[in-house]
Known about the structure:
Strand content: 15-25%
Number of helices: 7
Radius of gyration: 16 Å
Structural class: alpha+beta
Order of helices and strands: EHHHEEHHEHEHEEEE
Largest sheet: 9 strands, mixed
Oligomer: single chain
Mean pLDDT: 88
Low-confidence stretches: 197-208
Shape: globular
Amino acid sequence: MESLVHIRAARWADKDLVALLIADALHPTPLAAWLVPKPGQRCQVLTEVVAIWVEHALFFGDIHLTDDLTATAVGFHRYRPIPPPANYRTRLTDAAGPHADRFDLLDTLLAKKQPTEPHYHLAFLAVRTDVQRGGCGVALLAHHRSRLDRIDLPSWTAVLAGGEHLLARYGYTPRPAITLPDGPTLQPMRRNARHGSSVMPINPARPVDNRWHGFHA
């Protein structure tokens, strides 16, 4: 199935579509319900917050799409520290409104787990809800693995509990879980460099500015 899925780099013109695709995949998850408890506001808030990070990835990372525009992977090149999105606090407040505090709390909890050494951060892996389990996510992860092996750096991500089994097939191993207050459990995961030339701390002493992203649906 992987060989039948064509993958390309996203362009600036794709950014709104990518944000909608990720929001659509996140919408039915427990994380989305925790971030935005009111169902009527959830889709808009998720789309607008995700859009901030999609735009940022086009400057400080990469985005890949399946040719049929049903699945995407978004990552950040954390080979050195990168800045947060421009005017992030104002933009987050505008996008999330009264829910911004939940995004902030998630930021804080994840920042304690993310490595400080150079690494690739797989921020989003999303497949449109009506085509999930059709092979697009697997194809994107195979593409992601081949790219990681070429740059020979470790990678880090976080998934909702239960999603770690697919990532494990591509070399990721679980680290201590995070349980949100009255919310779902998240599973940070890491993948070592192919030749073992880079070492990632399991529990880094200095938190990094990863913000809330890092989830797959």
